[in-house]
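Everyone, study these two lines:
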Amino acid sequence: MNPTEKKLMPLESLTPDEIRGVKGIFFDIDDTFSLNGKIPACSFKALWDLRQAGFKTIPVTGRPAGWCDHIARMWPVDAVIGENGSMYFWMDAAKGKLRRYFSDPEDQRREKRLRLKALGERILSTVRGSALASDQAYRETDLAVDFCEDVPRLGDEAIAEIIHLFEKAGATCKASSIHVNGWFGDYDKLKMTRKFVEQRLQVSLTDEKERFVYCGDSPNDE
């Protein structure tokens, strides 16, 4: 997928000339980089191979800030965009320190967390069988409602009801392959990807769109 387009396309559709022009790869983690809940050895080796070949590699995920801290420190990546675009973390190679960028300042994040907590209680009391994601405690900016990762899979009607409750409360929400994530704000994966490219790579994603690809599997990757 071209990161500035809305339509997902198979990677096989890229021509050899297009592939030669690529310098950066953005990719989803769950059910894209991982398989059946695990990261295969071949996936992680491919990430190292890409890094050693000079490609920029950046996971873009709905997973929490706590995961992003680990990924930025320990994986062979240039940065990680987390919580559906509310932040990105990267390692300052010169100083060996983790750096963090958020869409919202801390005081706004704190206020929004309180609103999300109340909304989460409302959703769980309304949608039978739903639960907060097991990684919710490590999130800074969003609410993740589990519909199949650690609970028996909910039906489409229940998932639609979760989405409805988020939207009724004025929250933005996206469904992944395992969670419905909701947040208060107008950021998303693409907006933060654009910001990352401009701030850290110092190019315009619009102007350089042929040099980047994005790989994903879910509606929140479109």
